[in-house]
Amino acid sequence: MEAPPLLTELADYRPVQVLAEQLRATTVEDLFAQDPARATDFTLQAAGLRLDFSKHLLNREALAGLLRLADQAGLSAAIAALFDGEPINNTENRPALHMLLRASGSHGLDDKFTQVRDAREQMRQWSQRLNSGVQTGFSGAVITDVVNIGIGGSDLGPRLVSEALQPFRGDISCHYVANVDPADLQDTLLDLNPESTLFIVCSKSFRTEETLTNSLAARNWMLQAGAGQADLDRHFLAVTSNLQATAEFGIPAANCLPMWDWVGGRYSVWSAVGLSCAIAVGWENFQRFLAGAEAMDEHFHRSPPQASMPTLMSLLEVWYCNFFAAGNHVVLPYDQSLRRLPDFLQQLTMESNGKRVSRAGRPLPYTTAPVLWGSAGTMGQHSFHQLLHQGTELCPADFVLPLTTHTGMQEQHRRLVANGLAQSRTLMVGRSTDNARDALLQRGLDEAEAARLAPHLAMPGNRPNSVITMNAVDPATLGALLALYEHRTFCSAVLWGINPFDQWGVELGKEIGTQILARLSGEAAGGHMDPATERLMKEWRAAQG
Amino acid sequence: MEAPPLLTELADYRPVQVLAEQLRATTVEDLFAQDPARATDFTLQAAGLRLDFSKHLLNREALAGLLRLADQAGLSAAIAALFDGEPINNTENRPALHMLLRASGSHGLDDKFTQVRDAREQMRQWSQRLNSGVQTGFSGAVITDVVNIGIGGSDLGPRLVSEALQPFRGDISCHYVANVDPADLQDTLLDLNPESTLFIVCSKSFRTEETLTNSLAARNWMLQAGAGQADLDRHFLAVTSNLQATAEFGIPAANCLPMWDWVGGRYSVWSAVGLSCAIAVGWENFQRFLAGAEAMDEHFHRSPPQASMPTLMSLLEVWYCNFFAAGNHVVLPYDQSLRRLPDFLQQLTMESNGKRVSRAGRPLPYTTAPVLWGSAGTMGQHSFHQLLHQGTELCPADFVLPLTTHTGMQEQHRRLVANGLAQSRTLMVGRSTDNARDALLQRGLDEAEAARLAPHLAMPGNRPNSVITMNAVDPATLGALLALYEHRTFCSAVLWGINPFDQWGVELGKEIGTQILARLSGEAAGGHMDPATERLMKEWRAAQG
User: Fold this and answer.
1) Is the Cβ pair A404, B543 closer than 8 Å?
2) pTM of the model
3) How many Å apart are CA A358 and CA A361, to the nearest integer?
4) Does B463 touch chain A (CB under 8 A)?
């Protein structure tokens, strides 16, 4: 994978550009008229998920062109390298083995798989311990609440999973604290009793500023409530690779679960980082979550490119970013339990592919990851959908639409589904000015007023979107869904020629943060800053009163 | 305001384009070197807020050019028309009078101001009734929990305000239900007792699908718990203009607070739509919230354009959207209590300005509202900041940075401030490849490896951002902050030549939603859809088992 040509250097780049140019002059409705079979042919199934990509500004010819680009970018070899455990994270000389975390077999990586199995066994035991009420706090009270302290990958994944699997939850309540803003921890602890609370501290280095700061505050809270230093092992677990730091903190090795450098934070919910989820939904359900992801791995590993759901979704991403200049991608889960999906996907896609140099360090002459955003439907319909329908930005959309509800309220849920399908269709068909004028005349407006208002009601349509359906949100389909987006992210990285597994861009901010903190704390060591930062620090000082 | 020239037709459009072209070849650090006074001169103060816009790719000449554009677009006249109550919502022939909702005087609109004052008195009484424990439910138990049922403007504003003012809250807990997904209401009611719960139903028409559906489900819950039809007046308030529908629902007129057609949903948190907030934080604090907004109104109404904070922020929006092709804008509140600010601003900006025709119905030859997104700092630093620093998308940013905390944990809060200032500075200064290589050599890497990795650590910098500070998040500064963004949105609409107060683009989706719901419910009346929607409906039917 070391130095393949860049996207714009691929043989089919220019031909695909020409196809995009041609399609720009047509509409998706025209494409349906020419080829009605696309409604069934432009769909894929995998691991309990179904993808409908028929409402895209894409025909069979353009799709074939994109698949040729994927071939020329070496996608198949890259997928093989990923699954074979090659050091594809080339700037850190590491493999990316998140698939092993959900694998049922070792795939030839016996040593690492043994570690994974041991960690799973630890997770199983802690999950069962807590769910069976055996774990007690310093006063002898049974633990009823678990607080996960972590940030980024140690927060967004577990938070999403335990919210999405709310109907599968047992008696233990799980809470999540991430922000260094002390209000985050303070608000969370407000309703909790130290005697029955257990913290899980997730930090590979055990040095992450936010996580360490919050953990120290949590320990204070516990000690002030009457726990002794020796009781901390009843109230603190850690997921980390720094056993020295945890020992100094007061967490014994028996309470520590591992993290490995061959798993990036944003790919780690399948590891012990997911412990809070395994506690929340029980070990059986957590295993189903892993199995759903493994099924998607198998699909991705074994399918030819044209039948691979992650590959197809990645080709659509590249299609709009690089051939239609789309700078964003909107994800719309029509399910309240999946409301954090956009937050999770922001990290996954933007931290992975928000890069500007190739794997070999060459500046890229094209755009990479778009801004990913979104919210739960139908909330967005009463907020930003106005822009999706009538704005000037191209916003390719993914609708994520579970077809049944766990609530038992079928009739109300039907409204949710109807809204999701309606938005997807409306984005495609739009409304002509003539149609808008007729509608206004039917409402009783006179000719002049109808003519005046019609342009405001008209909608261009032709706004591309995918629909991802599943029978229900359950542990298996959720696992498959997250793995789907992981692999989609990987494919896009291959097409863009970048390494999705590092994040060097966040280093400098941390360094400068340390310098500014020193300055705010009155230490000269922080060094002199630019005039604006100097002025803002002065302003901060004045506000301390 | 009827038919001014479009942005691209203004006399100074081309000259400003030339200035943008020149600035593209420079850096913000160069601009600081040439003009260090910009650190103080490129700042503004208003209503307890301070704006630092010195870290933008903008010099005095370009700023003057933008101000000329604002002048040529008729901004001053538009502001006067807004405050004078002229029917500037030209497609609906209405004024936009949200400022009157927070005004301490009538501004010549005596009739409407009387209605506002009467509504305020109703709010005051309900707030005091609930906070003094006088309001009891059907069993005689005191009401302890209030559930706001509303969506869009009837949800995002109140939800943001009551979360942001958490430290000011009294004994009543406020909850928010919006989504038609039955899980939203069900999850919320899980921990509540019908005997001590009061619902506030917010819907101007009392016909909003989500709100009506959830209200009916809430009424069922109440009746099933033992309340009689005659007890509903103890458990339901409504904010609406449809008193007939509320009477049919079982809410007497005495429990109804008004909404008016001269206030758009996304501008309505200042009205009775904010009742849940007035209950949560008490009437005194809600008045301070209104007063903070009024102070910003005064500033906006009376300041010359170059001294007006909303105007300046709007000019920056137009600058990046229309002269630098930015398609998004990121808002980063460095305060956990403001974590919903981006959600609120999404509706405010994207529903207001996600338009593609002028006020006169002419298609626009330029882009309007960008995608607005963001999350609370420092969360985003461990998620999408990688893309902000090293991605290929231009993401102009607003940092919102309160300088003190209500938690009492000063030292931890200092870390939050340091991180915010550091991110703002880092986006500007970046890191050269040489500097990155030196840093790697200092870490002990050999020459070859340092040279190989340096391009991955290098960051272009020069990424524009504003810093909005306030001494603390309190009712007054929060009111000022929301009013600031409201007026910024208005100014951008004026520059783009659009009407920010309608939302015709959401109509068609509702119509098609009704048709699809009919089809899913087995009624043929829904009509035939496109092949993709037909196939998806079949898939839904199959999943119902």
Assistant:
1) yes
2) 0.98
3) 5
4) no
